[in-house]
Design brief:
The chain is α/β, with parallel strands linked by helices. It folds into two domains: 3-213 and 411-424, Rossmann fold; 223-407, Glycogen Phosphorylase B (Rossmann fold, 3-Layer(aba) Sandwich). The chain has helices at residues 3-25, 29-32, 35-38, 57-69, 85-97, 117-127, 141-150, 163-169, 173-178, 189-199, 249-262, 278-288, 316-320, 342-345, 365-368, 378-390, 395-407, 412-424, and strands spanning 50-53, 76-82, 105-111, 131-135, 153-159, 183-186, 204-206, 238-244, 267-272, 292-294, 307-309, 325-328, 350-352, 373-374. Helix 4 packs parallel to helix 5 and helix 11 (249-262) runs parallel beside helix 16 (378-390). The longest helix has 23 residues, at 3-25.
Length: 425
């Protein structure tokens, strides 16, 4: 069988698989939202010069960064797509801010269609882009195949790929070589090598991660100006256990109990990553015999030595301004980690566990410079939290050191904008 016949057969079978799956996908709560737009049932996406695909909220913030900085010499329309409702909210805010725009930029936002080759062809013909931009690890076989068939140029920006993902793609290397993009800008030499191995193209170069451009320290916030000052006495000893995932709860419970034993007067702020875990935490804290109070039920000042179970959205950043130390979760279980740069922006040294693959773009140098600390288990996390909280570095010094670290990491947005305009022209 010839290679072209293999591709057509694979495309046909892949399309059939998606069609068979659609009724089941419609039952999925996450995918049901915007389902008609994902299937192009009632309308098609509008025409645009550039189509940028950003998988979820994190990638959508990268798209926002690009749209806020790119300067076109002639009127240029962008179509911004995503797979999640959180991503769409971010993109829609970006679109709203661009109207009117003095930089020749306009944009619309919608859901990315399901990766059916037939849907991809239909969407691409409607949009008729001169350039498709994929952010990070957006390798959609049906969509890339459709771009190749229609002769639409594709580039991947802020590109990253894990060893595990590469191994999966390499089960059919000739296929991915056929649908290769024109250019890739990767965020590390290892990522660049993986993309080079998969696609075998010459135009693979390096760029700083755009996420560093949107990372910065915040101005000092006076205690009286902090919205949480109404529940904390001045200089309350306060440690944060933030963004805790379900998979690590048993270890974090041990960490909480040990902190309470070692620092009996310290207030511990416990922030579950997902609010539906609040009831489970109530039971765990109760069974452990630990003193706790719901954030929503705090009336007056938090008693010393209590655990505040945070059931209110949007207050963790304000809490960092009052904390002496912070553990950032998603890192004591292999779930990829959470953003441990946020505490640094507020002058707090973060501690994480051994798992942080979602943030390996930050690089190990941040630990070598002792801006952040990494431990192998909850006991190591405990040891670091106790050391930091005993003599917490001054927030201004932490922020100054962090800013110095960021200086050499920035510039990705500028390179991304240059790549888009270069390939568009």
């Amino acid at each position: 069988m010839s290679q072209s016949l293999k591709l057509r057969t694979a495309s046909f079978v892949y399309d059939l698989g998606w069609k068979a799956a659609l009724p089941f996908l419609h039952r999925n709560e996450r995918l049901r939202e915007g389902f008609d737009r994902r299937t192009l049932k009632h309308s098609l996406p509008p025409q645009a010069d550039v189509w940028i695909q950003a998988a979820s909220a994190g990638e959508a913030k990268l798209a926002t960064r690009i749209l806020d900085n790119i300067k076109a010499t002639s009127p240029t329309k962008f179509l911004l797509t995503t797979n999640t409702s959180q991503g769409l909210s971010e993109l829609e805010r970006t679109v709203y801010r661009l109207t009117p725009n003095a930089r020749n930029i306009s944009a619309t936002a919608t859901y990315f269609p399901f990766d059916m080759p037939s849907l991809a062809i239909k969407a691409l013909k409607a949009v008729n882009p001169k350039l498709v931009v994929l952010l990070e690890t957006e390798i959609w076989p049906g969509f890339l195949l459709a771009c190749k068939e229609l002769g639409i140029k594709v580039i991947i920006i802020n590109a990253r790929m894990s060893t595990k993902s590469l191994a999966g793609y390499m089960t059919w290397p000739s296929f991915f070589k056929t649908i290769a993009p024109e250019e890739i800008l990767a965020i590390s030499p290892n990522d660049a090598n993986r993309f080079q191995t998969l696609f075998e193209i010459d135009k693979v170069s390096l760029m700083p991660n755009i996420k560093f451009d949107s990372t910065a320290t915040v101005a000092p916030l006076a205690y009286t100006a902090n919205p949480l000052s109404k529940i904390f006495k001045p200089k309350t000893p306060f440690i944060i256990l933030g963004s805790i995932r379900k998979e690590e709860e048993s270890q974090v419970l041990k960490l909480t109990a040990a902190l309470k034993k070692e620092r009996p007067k310290t207030v511990i702020g416990l922030f579950p990553r997902h609010m539906h875990r609040i009831d489970a935490w109530k039971d765990m804290l109760e069974k452990k015999g630990l003193p706790w109070i719901l954030r929503s039920e705090v009336d007056g000042k938090v008693p010393l030595g209590h655990i505040v179970l945070w059931d209110v959205f949007g207050e963790m950043l304000s809490a960092f301004s009052l904390a002496r130390a912070a553990f950032i979760g998603g890192s004591l279980a292999p779930v990829g980690g959470q953003n441990f740069l946020e505490p640094l922006s507020y002058g707090v040294t973060p501690v994480i566990g051994p798992y942080w693959t979602n943030f390996n773009w930050v690089g190990k140098d941040i630990f070598a410079k002792k801006l952040a600390r990494q431990a192998d288990d909850y006991e190591g996390v405990l040891k670091n939290l106790l050391l930091i909280s005993k003599k917490a570095p001054k927030p201004d010094k932490v922020k100054k050191d962090f800013e110095k670290y960021l200086e050499n990491m920035r510039g990705g947005t500028e390179l991304a904008c240059e790549a888009i305009l270069r390939n568009l022209s």
